[in-house]
Write a structure and sequence with these properties.
elongated, about 35% helix, alpha+beta
């Protein structure tokens, strides 16, 4: 699975890039047909505390799953997004097994 990372309004540290890469790659444990992924990290509205947004898109056969999470750190936003995607992937798999 290829994962593209795009940082908007800031430049990411290598540690952050590696963290995001590992966290999204771990989703392949829950669904074996993930084609590729995109992660957009955005810094929005500088006056607010929870201004760091992670938008994660995963392409699977027949669908594109998109999750957008906001918090006060990019790591937490990525974790929240990855957890939401894990639940979505499990739900998709259960539907496929039911048919």
């Amino acid at each position: 699975m290829t994962i593209r990372l795009q940082c908007i309004n800031f430049s990411a540290r290598p540690e952050l890039q590696q963290f995001v890469q590992q966290r999204v790659e771990k989703l392949s444990l829950f669904h074996d047909q993930i084609i590729d992924g995109e992660v957009h990290l955005k810094l929005e509205n500088y006056a607010e505390k929870d201004n760091k947004v992670a938008e994660i898109k995963l392409k699977i056969p027949g669908n594109e799953l998109v999750v957008k999470k906001r918090s006060d750190s990019f790591e937490e936003s990525t974790d929240l997004g990855a957890e939401a995607l894990r639940r979505l992937l499990n739900r998709k798999k259960e539907r496929l097994r039911g048919h």
